[in-house]
């Protein structure tokens, strides 16, 4: 039983239910606390696990059941460790005892916190992003788009309304030639640009 008690990966503390004092503790629990056995055995359990005020012990005073409940373990360096704890009440040699077993869930809680923050960040990003998708009816000649209410909208207005895009305007070379190709000032400017490239 001693070998089993000290080789389990769970921290285990045995508490006298009447005095609330720790009467035994395994190596895993001591490692988690960062303490040696003589600094734990004989002391009240609330000094180390689930720090409740005197008279407010969830089990002894408040009649609660602790089964896979999240609690705090107070470590020797003044920090704390998040644990998942279960407590069973047994009677042994005429004494009522609490067998408290727990595992360290600090890393798991940090991962959960990171995940929650990531979900919040992604949700916020998704709220800002509007994506155009699906089949959009567009006029082959004027390029207006028909919305889901049947109205024909200017392409720019439609895209600005249903996305985060906005437009600035210019002319491509083909449209510039079509619009201004017969103007003297345009022809002179085009010749200058071509000669400047050479």
Supply the key terms.
single chain, 198 residues, alpha+beta, Beta-Lactamase, 2 domains, five-stranded antiparallel β-sheet, two-stranded antiparallel ribbon, 7 strands, 22% strand
Topology, please?
Layout: H1 2-7, E1 11-16, E2 22-25, H2 27-33, E3 69-74, E4 80-92, E5 95-104, H3 106-128, E6 145-146, E7 152-153, H4 155-162, H5 173-180, H6 184-197
Account of the 3D structure:
The protein is of the alpha+beta class. Helix content is 33%, strand content 22%. It contains six helices and seven strands, in the order αββαβββαββααα. It has a five-stranded antiparallel β-sheet with strand order 2-1-5-4-3. The longest helix is centred in the middle third of the chain and has 23 residues, at 106-128.
């Amino acid at each position: 039983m001693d070998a089993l008690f000290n080789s389990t990966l769970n921290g285990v503390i045995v508490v006298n239910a009447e005095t609330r004092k720790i009467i035994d503790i395994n190596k895993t629990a001591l490692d988690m606390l960062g303490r040696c056995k003589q600094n734990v055995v004989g002391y009240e359990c609330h000094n180390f696990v689930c720090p409740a005020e005197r008279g407010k012990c969830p089990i002894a005073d408040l009649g609660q059941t602790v089964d896979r409940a999240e609690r705090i373990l107070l470590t020797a360096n003044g920090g704390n460790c998040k644990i998942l704890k279960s407590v069973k009440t047994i009677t042994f040699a005429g004494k009522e005892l609490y067998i408290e077993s727990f595992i360290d869930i600090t890393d798991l809680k940090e991962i959960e916190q990171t995940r929650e923050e990531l979900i919040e960040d992604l949700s916020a990003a998704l709220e800002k992003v509007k994506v155009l998708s699906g089949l959009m009816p567009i006029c082959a000649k004027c390029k207006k788009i028909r919305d889901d209410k049947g109205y024909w909208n200017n392409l720019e207005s439609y895209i600005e309304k249903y996305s985060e895009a906005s437009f600035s305007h210019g002319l491509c070379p083909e449209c510039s030639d079509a619009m201004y190709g017969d103007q003297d000032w345009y022809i002179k400017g085009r010749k200058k640009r071509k000669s400047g490239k050479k």
